[in-house]
Amino acid sequence: MASSGIDLSAATWRKSSCSNGTGGDCVEVADGLAGLVPVRDSTRPDGGVVMVSAAAWGPFVALLRAS
Measured between alpha carbons, how far is residue 14 from residues 2, 45, 64, 67 in Å? Predict the structure, then answer.
């Protein structure tokens, strides 16, 4: 996994409210990083993390909720 230079070892991850227990829609995000929202697949917590700007995350979530 490529390093972003950001230490996420102490991150508190929370599962999306749309995730379920059967392996579907398993998205987790971590809070507490100014200006960034780390996103990962909860079924692969040691896998990659996508870093999204907080400015892009808000409109992205709003668009998902509207669909």
Answer: 22, 12, 18, 22
Query: Where are the chain's structural domains?
Result: 13-66
Order across the sheet with 13-15: list the strands.
Answer: 13-15, 27-30, 36-41, 50-53
pLDDT for residue 1: 44
Quote the strand ranges of 1-67, DSSP E.
13-15, 27-30, 36-41, 50-53
Average pLDDT over residues 49-63: 93
User: Beta-carbon neighbour count of residue 4 at 10 Å?
Assistant: 13
